[in-house]
User: Fold this.
Amino acid sequence: MTKTKLLALAAVAALGSGSALAQKAGDWQVGAGWLHFAPQDSSEPLTFTAPRAAIVPGSGANVDSSDTLGLNAQYFIDSHWAVEGVIGVPPKFRLQGAGTLGPIGELGEARQWSPTLLAKYYFLEGEAKLRPFVGLGVTYVWYSDVKLTPGLQGALASRVGIPAGRSTTTADLDSSFAPVFNLGAAYQFDQHWGMSFSVSYIPLKTTANLTTTVAGVPVATSESRLKVNPIVPYLSVTYKF
Assistant:
């Protein structure tokens, strides 16, 4: 076999390998991995709205970070544009007292649901192994399993003159839509397997609405507004088919 033929065969093999790696129109890719929520939080003071309006001076709260399993699936419209859905096993967030609520310690916990839909643009050509991308999308956030600690319940009861252990306080957190800003890079090992790392920022806020009852009868209501604004890194292993 001549040198010219060997070079021609090598070129054909290289082209075949590139097309196998290519991300192109109609491709589906699924992934799973580590999803981390790092709140950049702030809060307004706890405010009683009934039986009379009153602000608890210097009160505040901080949201702990959380880790969970992330799952994603994306569809390539062409070699550059893709639509991706991302969801995590709902992580549990713990709320810690700050300011005058600091001595209480943990105030409560809740699970966050935040399915996300992204439009993503991949730079470079589809045959490239390493491809940076940017994304823009929206998430709908709601909360479940909201629980308040006995320490916070006792503090709220004492504020309205109720003996400890005589009342129960429940809470719910407002649901909301929020934009998602995303950037990252993907690396393709072969025609099927790859990995991806991205960082998202979500400007997110919610209001915690608390109701204190005695024998099932509401005796006080209060609220606190929270800005969560999480930075969300996501590292995943992907499979393209």
In short: Confidence is low (pLDDT under 50) at residues 3-18. Helices lie at 3-21, 150-159. DSSP finds two helices and 17 strands in the chain. The CA atoms of residues 173 and 208 lie 5 Å apart.
